[in-house]
Every structure is written in structure tokens, then in C-alpha cells.
């Protein structure tokens, strides 16, 4: 399977790229608004993987080129770039392409971080609104600890809650998620259930900030 | 320490009463709007505990009588009864009494359960607004699986995130939470951070509903 990670130079994108390249045989393509930056990061990831005995080619391209032909496109960009990133790639999508959104909107005040819920209900639903008709959108990977994800020596032992309205697309993303060692995918139902997942991310930051010895947290439903 | 469980005849109240009575030497008082009902439930709990070799007296009283003199008062009532429950007990509170709120507001549609966030920010902050000046309110026990909590054979292995603006009160409630075997308390900061904790409860229900073999879920930050 070909997976494009748009915004794949950022923290969650980096972690997903490294984990999939390390744990699976999926083809990984890094996308960025600047193709050069994507290519540079892709090379960094190759070097990191090579140091662990994994010889793999990772392409780095513009977001549009990375998305073109990919089976699954992960929109690892900030929430406020979600709509324009989708717009930039939409003309070149393969038939049956699946868009995946891990983005969360947050705001911060003196108490801590808070979920910044968009009017449409969630950032995941914002992506679904921006996507063309017939292109399934799946919400996943919202609550992953970026640092641990990108550190291949770190155990995960955490969950990702997945939402989507297209059963086949949810199944594909669920399989991709569980291809990552130590990550368990749980089905949280339709896209309309995304807000409560997204809200966990600011809570994880607040908990890390207020408890000694806890940092870079994920979540487990048990 | 004397702990009053108002609404202690309901599911979370029952679980907390049984766990504290089983795992600790704290004095447990069950409160209900009807004293008879509270007394009946308290007797049930005594029988359950006695069957496990724990001989303990649990009182059952009206909410106001149960709250009077208690060190910690857990408002284990539905969100829409929070304000009137506080109003009913406030005149009889001991100096230094601490109010604890585990209530969450939810609504349901065809997609699943959703967090019903009150205008004031969270149900926890709703309790804080209803409490008299100088009486500390702590948010805790929002995401506990009621069935497992009340089943003393069941292992917990889960967390409760605690919020509060009064450091001493938070510390007291944290200790009480960790007195329960298998429950870990994590500090999520001030009361203003409560919404993201409360929102987990509907998500846990959605995950349980959509995944075979998962039910009565709690959460772990790790």
C-alpha cells in the first residue's frame, strides 16, 4: 500500500513515517508544501532507518505529488491548514484514495490547554466538509505522543480511536494503525463522534504538565 | 475520614462506597433524597461486604444528614441534579468540607453519545458555581466504569484525572482516589480543565458499543 504523509516533515508525520517504514512494507511518501523540505526529511528518515538495519526508499515531494497515486493520504498538518491542504491535492487523487485526519484544534490559557471545537463539530468533520464528494475521510491518530512515536526505541502500548462513515475506509485505516507495533485501533463509530477523541489531546498535555514523571502521553481504553 | 456519597444509591456512588469500604477504613455514609432508600442500599452494601469478610457499618441517610459533618462529600448525582443537591446540603456542611463532583452531561443521537458541555464550561464548573464561597470543589471520578467499580472481583488498572483550584482539597481527593486498589489519580490542573475530562465518558461508551469484547471501559494515560 502507498501511504502519503502530507505535512510529513512535522512531528506526528515523522513518527508515522518512521513507524510504518520500520514495522511494515508499505511504501511511504513524505509530502510538504516545499518539495525540497520533504525530500530532505525523507532522506533523514532513510538514514535513521538505515542505522537500524532497514534499507528503504522514502520519497519526498510536494503535497500534491505525494498525494497523487497514494492509497491513503494522511493529512498531518495543523487544523488551520487542513482545508487548503485538501484543496491543493484533490485534483490528483487516485480513485479509492482515503483521506486520514489526525489534526486537533487547541487553545491555551493560564489553566492549560483546551479543545478548540470548530462550529462544524470537530476538526475531523472540517476535513470531511473540505473533501470532495465520494472521497472517504477517516479520523485517526489524534492522540499519539509525537516524541515517543518518532523514537523507534520507545514502546507505545496505546490506542488510537478511529471514526469514519465509510466502513471499508475505516477498515483499511484500522489495519494500517495496527500494523504499527504497540498501537491498537479502536472503532469509535461515525465521524460525528470525533470531537470527544480530539478533546483528549489537550488533556494529555495538561496531565503531562501537572504530574512529575509523566510526559509524551498516549491513552489506553481498558 | 468521613466520606458522604450523595446519590450513593446510584451506580458510581455504589461502586465508590463499596471500594472505599472494602479497601480502606474511611467511614462511609450513603445519602439519597429519600433517607429510607439510602438506608436500604447501605444495608445491601454491608451484606455484600460481609460476604467478603468485611464487617463494617455503613449509614444511610437523607442527603443533608449524610453531608452534615462529612469531610468529603461526593455528589454522585446526575448533572441536572447537581445544583439542587448542593443547595439541599449546604447549610449543614462542616468547616473544611470538600465537595467532589464526578457528574458528566451527555446527549445521544444516532451516531452515539456526545459530551453535552454546559455554558459555564463543564459540569464540574457548574458545581463550583453552585457551591458557597470558601467551599472547595474538586472534579474527580468522571470516567470510571460503574459496573467494574461496583464489582469487587474486578481489577481496575485505570486512572482518574482530578481538577481543582484548591491545592489542599485536590491533595485530599487524590489520596482518597489512590486508596482504591487499582485506581491511579492524575492531576489535570485547575477546574477550568474539566471539560476535556468529562468528554471522555461518552467516548468510552462509543468505543464499548463499537468494539466486540470491550465494555465497561475506563481510561489510562500512559
Task: Describe this structure as you would to a colleague.
2 copies of one chain form a homodimer. With 222 residues, chain A is an alpha/beta fold. Chain A has 9 helices and 11 strands. Chain A has helices at residues 11-23, 35-50, 63-67, 82-89, 123-130, 146-150, 167-178, 194-198, 200-210; strands at 2-6, 27-32, 59-62, 72-75, 98-101, 106-108, 113-115, 137-139, 158-164, 183-187, 219-221. In chain A, the strands form 2 sheets. An 8-stranded mixed β-sheet of chain A has the order 3-2-1-4-5-8-9-10, with helices on both faces. A two-stranded antiparallel sheet of chain A has the order 6-7. In chain A, α1 links the parallel β1 (2-6) and β2. Chain A starts with a strand and ends with a strand. The relative contact order of chain A is 0.15. The mean pLDDT of chain A is 97. Chains A and B meet through β7, α8, α9 and β11 of A and α8, α9 and β11 of B.
The biggest beta sheet of chain A reads: 8 strands, mixed
Q: What structural class do the secondary elements of chain A suggest?
A: alpha/beta
Low-confidence stretches of chain A: none
- The helix fraction of chain A, in percent, is 25-40%
What's the shape of chain A? globular
| Proportion of residues in β-strands of chain A | 15-25%
Supply Rg of chain A.
16 Å
Main sheet: strand order of chain A: 3-2-1-4-5-8-9-10
Keywords for this entry:
two-stranded antiparallel ribbon; 222 residues; 9 helices; homodimer; 8-stranded mixed sheet; alpha/beta
Topology:
The structure is a homodimer of 222-residue chains.
Chain A: E1 2-6, H1 11-23, E2 27-32, H2 35-50, E3 59-62, H3 63-67, E4 72-75, H4 82-89, E5 98-101, E6 106-108, E7 113-115, H5 123-130, E8 137-139, H6 146-150, E9 158-164, H7 167-178, E10 183-187, H8 194-198, H9 200-210, E11 219-221
Parallel strand pairs in A: 1-2, 1-4, 2-3, 4-5, 5-8, 9-10
Antiparallel strand pairs in A: 6-7, 8-9
Helix pairs in contact in A: 1-2
Amino acid at each position: 500500500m502507498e501511504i502519503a504523509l502530507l505535512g510529513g516533515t512535522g512531528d506526528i508525520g515523522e513518527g508515522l513515517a518512521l513507524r510504518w517504514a520500520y514495522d511494515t512494507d508499505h511504501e511511504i511518501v513524505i509530502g510538504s508544501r516545499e518539495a525540497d523540505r520533504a525530500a530532505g526529511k525523507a532522506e533523514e528518515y532513510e538514514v535513521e532507518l538505515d542505522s537500524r538495519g532497514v534499507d528503504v526508499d522514502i520519497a519526498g515531494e510536494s503535497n500534491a505529488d505525494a498525494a497523487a497515486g497514494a492509497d491513503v493520504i494522511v493529512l498531518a498538518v495543523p487544523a488551520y491548514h487542513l482545508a487548503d491542504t485538501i484543496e491543493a491535492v484533490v485534483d490528483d487523487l487516485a480513485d479509492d484514495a482515503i483521506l486520514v485526519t489526525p489534526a486537533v484544534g487547541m487553545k491555551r490559557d493560564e489553566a492549560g490547554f483546551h479543545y478548540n471545537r470548530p462550529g462544524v463539530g470537530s476538526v475531523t468533520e472540517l476535513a470531511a466538509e473540505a473533501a470532495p464528494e465520494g472521497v472517504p475521510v477517516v479520523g485517526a491518530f489524534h492522540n499519539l505522543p509525537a516524541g515517543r512515536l518518532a523514537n523507534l526505541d520507545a514502546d507505545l502500548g496505546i490506542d488510537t480511536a478511529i471514526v469514519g462513515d465509510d466502513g471499508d475506509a475505516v477498515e483499511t485505516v484500522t489495519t494500517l494503525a495496527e500494523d504499527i507495533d504497540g498501537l491498537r485501533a479502536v472503532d469509535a463509530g461515525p465521524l460525528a463522534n470525533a470531537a470527544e477523541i480530539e478533546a483528549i489531546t489537550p488533556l494529555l498535555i495538561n496531565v503531562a504538565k501537572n504530574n512529575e514523571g509523566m510526559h509524551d502521553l498516549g491513552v489506553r481504553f481498558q
